[in-house]
Amino acid sequence: MEEGFHLLIVGGASGVGKTSVLQRLLGVQQISTGTLFKGYMALQSRDAVRTVNWAMCEDAVAKDLVASVVGLLPDHPGAIIDTHFAAKIHDRSYRIGLSKPLIFRLGRELFRAADACGRRAWISVALVAVDSRSLLNRRRGDTTRDREFSPSDCVLSLRANSGCAAEYASEFWRAELAAYDEIGQRVTSAVIENCNLDSAQDALEQIWKRNYHGKN
Amino acid sequence: MARIKWPTDPAEAEREQATLLELLVAETRLPQLEFERGLAVGTAYSDPLGRAFAVAVPFDAKGNYSQREYVATADVAFPYVPGLLAFRVGPAICSLLDGIIDRCDLLLFDGQGIAHPRGLGLAAHIGLLYDKPSIGMTRNCLFGDYTEPMREQFGVTAVTHPRTWATIGYAVRLGERCDPCFVSPGHGMDLEGSLALVRRLAGEGACFPKVLQRAHAIANAKARKAGQA
Question: Is B2's CB within 8 Å of A142's CB?
Answer without folding.
Answer: yes
